[in-house]
Specification:
By secondary structure, the chain is mainly alpha-helical. It has two domains: about 50 residues, no CATH class; about 80 residues. It is built from four helices and four strands; from the N terminus they run E-E-H-H-H-E-E-H. A two-stranded antiparallel ribbon has the order 1-2. A two-stranded antiparallel ribbon has the order 3-4. The relative contact order is 0.08.
Length: about 160
């Protein structure tokens, strides 16, 4: 007696609903019949989707990094903004380090005294100023907003 094992065993994929031989399914030890519930083709699609979702998770991670490092983000953004206005301003690594430090100091000052400070371009970028440390100053945000892109604004 007993069932004939000679014929090819067929299973129906839960995802595409197509009946396929067992060889078209990935192995799955925990399942009674030893194979997964979806066929290899559907599994491949699933993996692709998983990779894409993880890429999105990675992007989300990058966004949250930006949120938790606002001063570094601002420095990067300012760099990008300047590049788009002035073409490629070649900064030496040590100069970029100084600029980073200025942005970090600005945040530290804001945290310490509880008044929001901005890093300001003394000569505004829109007026041809450069994004270099000699053209940067840390001033209270409210002054920065008043100064906007005015030239020769005397800080009270
Ligand atoms: Zn399938």
């Amino acid at each position: 007696m007993g069932q004939s094992r000679s014929s090819v065993e067929i299973a129906t994929c839960h995802t595409c609903k197509v009946s396929k031989p067992f060889s078209c399914f990935p192995k799955h030890k925990k399942k009674k019949n030893g194979i997964g519930t979806e066929c290899k083709d559907c599994f491949k699609i699933y993996i692709k989707k998983w990779r894409l979702e993880n890429r999105e998770r990675y992007i989300k991670h990058a966004i949250s990094w930006n949120k938790s490092h606002p001063e570094k983000r601002k420095a990067l953004e300012a760099n990008r903004r300047v590049r788009s206005v002035q073409g490629n301003v070649m900064l030496h690594y040590s100069q970029m380090k100084i600029i980073d430090t200025i942005y970090e100091s600005s945040k530290r000052i804001s945290d310490c005294i509880g008044i929001n400070h901005h890093v300001d371009h003394i000569v505004p970028i829109s007026k041809g100023g450069y994004h270099v440390h000699t053209n940067l100053q840390i001033i209270p945000a409210i002054i920065n907003l008043r100064k906007s892109n005015k030239l020769n604004y005397s800080i009270p």
